[in-house]
Amino acid sequence: MCAESSSEGQPHMLIVGAGCTGALIAAMIPREATRRGKPRPRISVWEWGRGPAGRMTSFWADVEGERVVADVGAQVISLQDPRRLPEWMEPHVMAADGLGLSNTEEREPTWHHFCTPNGLPALQRASLQEAQPDELHFHRRVVELTCAGGRWKAGFAGERGRRSVGSQEFSLVVFAGTASDASSLEGLCSALAPRQLHALNAVRYDHRLCVALILKQQMSGHLEALCHGNAELLMEGPLRLLARQEVKGRRARGGCAVVLHSSPAFAAENLQLAKRQNTPPAVLGRQRLTERLAELLKMPVAQLEAAVLESKVVHWRQCQVKRPLASDARSEACLVAEGAPNLILAGDYLAGATAGSFEGCLESAEAAAAAAVEALSQGHRPRRWGYREEYSKTYSFMAERSECDGQCTYCRHSNNQHKWAEIRTKIGHYVYRENEEDDSLLALAEHREVQDLINWSWLKGVNFECILGIIALRLLSFGYSDPLQFNADDPDFDVLDFLDTFNAHSGALDLLTSSWAALLAGGWPVFKQVHLVGKKLIDVMDDRPMKYPGLQQRPNECDELDSEEDLNYRDALLYAHSQGEMLAPGVHLLALRRGSGCPVGNAVALLSLALDTVRTRGTYQGSLKDTQNMVYSLIVSAQDTINAWVTSKLNWSPFFDLFTTKWPLWEVLSQLACVDTTRPCVTRSALQCYDFIHRRDVPCPHRRPAFRSIFVGCGEHDICTWPDFMGTMEPQTWCVARGQRPSQPIRPWLAEMSHDMEERVCSQCGQDGVLATPAYSGIMLAVFLSLCALASAQQIGTHEQEAHPEMALWTCDAGGCSKEMKSVVLDANWRWLHNGQYTNCYKDGDWDKTLCPDPVTCALNCHMEGNSEKQYKSTYGIQSIQDGIELDFVTTTKYGSNYGSRVYMLDDENNYQMFKLKNREFTLTADMAKMPCGLNGAVYFVEMDADGGKARSGGTNAAGAKYGTGYCDAQCPHDMKFMNGKANIVGWNASHDPPIGSWGICCAEMDIWEANSRATAYTPHPCSITGPYVCEGTECGDNSEDARYDGVCDKDGCDYNHYRLGDKEYYGRGNGFTVNSKKKLTVVTQFITEGNTDDGDLIDIRRFYVQDGRVIPNSNISIAGMVGDSVTDATCAAMKSAFGDINDFARKGGLKAMGEALQRGMVLVMSLWDDSDANMLWLDSDYPLEKDPSLPGVNRGPCRTDTGLPAYLRDKYPRARVRYSKIKVGTLGSTFLAGGDEDDDEDDIYGDDRRLSEVHI
């Protein structure tokens, strides 16, 4: 952390970047200094571009002896208040061919749009001219920032990008590059606070395309006619900006130029298409944008291409954050490094009501200039902590000793970099406080924040070996100026002197008593040192070190023995040593657990003994019960010694309970579950073993008051400890009684009693074996289950209580309808998955490899978080409305954006509402007015389990229906994160859109309503299996494997789509259609059975609508050779034949199989989604694309084929939404009546994207 400014001469500052923000800062700093009466600092500006505004690429070509220039950079600036314009700018009031755009869906009338002469490049040149910097370098890229003598040393690369070709020192640095450049700059991360680094990494940029075309002069008239005054073009389709460049200056005689800026959605779409077509994105983008321009010019593409003399494509990176980056409290629009006030970051990502706007650059530049002048005038004193180079050396040594240097020193490439930097910085602060004479860890131990960080690092599984190794080695090196001097294996190491030094620091023991188990588990280097200390203790207390034919102790203050029983027990353990079974180094101190002379040594030895007992898989030739008793006693002894010491020193009696504290003690004890004298789980990691431990549910018959101190209550379950359980039943006996074999010898046996049920599961390890030593100490049970949030598989998070939005359900018969309030629950796939604290199990499309090394371990580790009703709305766009539910398409929070959702109707808090629809009808009212082409508002039924798969998971799914688990459908989706209680991580492909695993989850599906405001269909999808079925390979029927019709479900279904079946005037937006999708409509679906009985086979699925008080019959099929107006087996067969489709519907059992699923019971699903696989073309456009649209069945709706891309929809229609209400189920003819209210027309922007030939007048 650079703390001191230049001590002599004029302060010298560096501005990194001469883009829009950097140039403005350079111009504003002299003015700000003058305003404050401060001397003007020396200013250096370094820019990687090739000249003023060099990043604003210009492209030129010689045409008939004249140079025609196309500036690819932005030509337009946008401001809310035009009075904020710097006085050196001379803008035109409005560009004839440009328009500034905000992130809002509609143009903001309060914004003023200007065009500077020759665009923003001219603005930057004018700003640098105003600044008159002392040094201005182009082709100079800063690659490194380091502290040197209280100043910043900036290393730079030359024109060819070589690293470290030179460096220069500065008093202050202002970084005006992009956020991504800042977060990757070497050395910068050490100056910024972790939260600042995290915020920088969260900034996202689009990579839109800019195509510059130099055209023949003959195109000038066409461009002028297109561009002049026609701002609408700038929001049209893929084009975000279309600028005819020659109007910015003198018109060239020989040619003209046009620049096409794509929208961010187009750029994302183009990248996807390029990957599919194996074409460079720039080539494909130029082609598509040129085609779009030709369409706007109303000329053939070939004619336009013939007029192109030169062209260039560049990627234009633009910040797209919706909210400004959280900045330092002293400034709203720039970021002042928390650890070093002489480093300032600025850019449009830090401010501006419109992301990426000139307003953001201007605001940030003003704030950065003010902060820079203030910092220079105040001398850059640190706000809190000092700095010593010694800490860096100590840290490096400890990282190396922890054998995790690769994890400890990483700063730029890890998802956990911000948290690791925070831990590292805090440790350094507390160990080396500037005003603290005592250089021990007293300060470290006094701060609860550091203890929290230790617990955080362990419980979250982040770099715990690194951080705990550092803490432990520091603890063990008191009184040594150099940690390298501390070596318990050194023959000259005086262990008693060490303990005296150790005991002299009460603060150290305070830290020890809050994280002792973490200390022991801090990695092999730490354990080794503790282990050696224990050995030394034995040696000094025994006349013949490590030789135990007898016991002769050296007199000292710790030689009091409590009882003959203790001596006998100790002798037995020592005898084990003589038999070659290496036990704990401090073994005989077991007998001294009530001594007061050296309690810390006792604690070290006792816990070391417990750990060593497990690690060396050894006991003397005793029984399994003896081993358990021994380990249990060791832990009790360690607790007693620490409590006794604290009591004697501080005169208060803490309940220092190793059994119930939320320490990482489970790591030490979990070794008991993972060390085997044979073979099965000897290689399992502690984390895996911890997870497997919690798969065991064992009844707890007795709870004796004597053990109440180690009794833990956790949620709805009561947990009893080992003494209760082990006194009543042996684990092997219990397993045999359950008809199961104990295939894992070293499993812990949890005791759990539920209020309403008992689940008992024998966990498997994949190999047969016998129950061997050591099995389970009751201490492990209480410690493990005290961490309720980490207790079992696919568990429930504790950060937010789950609440469910209400939704009404009517049940009807001939006598009328009765209303009951139900609720809906969000699908588990949308939920936050974490390890029980704040570490994500799943982030950015991929799984955490530590928490999720395999499907079962992942399910055991990961918790599904609940959502309040407020979060349902603010995070997912789900809210109750009158008699129904509303689903919004795009919902944006500070953590990102959510697109679409899927909810299920609940019967009660823990079970889905099950619908049995044979010989029944189902009715809903839908509001589709704000559902454009490419979206799908779906209401359908799937054969999910009523409990969300909780029962069939074998205990690994504790969340269940209450948290939306268990989804399946006839498409056998591969993107479900969990299936039957196991994580779908095998073969996980994070780069796929959406990310998918090798497993799919299949079940029967009945699509009642799949629709937007342009097209609709209802479709049965029978399957050859019953209930949810996890598939892999051919059974899934994946298109990528060319096995669509070899799977267990009918993926095509038998869809009744009015448009596809010939009636193109039946459903659409406006009064010209039979059913007007701009108004609410009631959808009635009847399931007709043979003989009109509940037990008869399903033979027909009928549809009609109610709107404006009248019943509207379904459309008739008008395809040659076909008749009908409903879904029957005969209709489906004729449809498949006419369209040339495979009749997989019949293969999978047709309506009879569909009816059987309906009779078993299905769950109601309501969703809003976009389609990254097929862009929803199968619903509302031409599909498949390789077929001629004139063929029967290919044309499915009026939408264009380029409007269903998710990126396009998310950018253009963020306010799209669907509403479902008045859900009714009942006997045939009971759920609807003629009559209804007529609603006002909605905004027709959601009716865009039709083919022009389909516009209805």
From TrEMBL:
Q: What class of enzyme is it?
A: hydrolase
In which family does this protein belong, per the annotation?
Belongs to the glycosyl hydrolase 7 (cellulase C) family.
Q: Which GO terms describe its biological process?
A: cellulose catabolic process
Residues of the signal sequence? none
What are its E.C. numbers? Answer: 3.2.1.4
- Keyword hit for Signal: yes
Could you confirm whether the keyword ATP-binding appears in this record? no
Q: Which reaction does it catalyse?
A: Endohydrolysis of (1->4)-beta-D-glucosidic linkages in cellulose, lichenin and cereal beta-D-glucans
Superkingdom of this entry's organism? Eukaryota
One Pfam assignment: Glyco_hydro_7
Residue span, Amine oxidase domain: 117-371
The UniProt keyword set, sorted, is: Carbohydrate metabolism, Cellulose degradation, Glycoprotein, Glycosidase, Hydrolase, Polysaccharide degradation, Signal
Q: Name one GO molecular function term.
A: cellulase activity
Tell me what this protein is called.
cellulase
- Record the organism: Symbiodinium natans
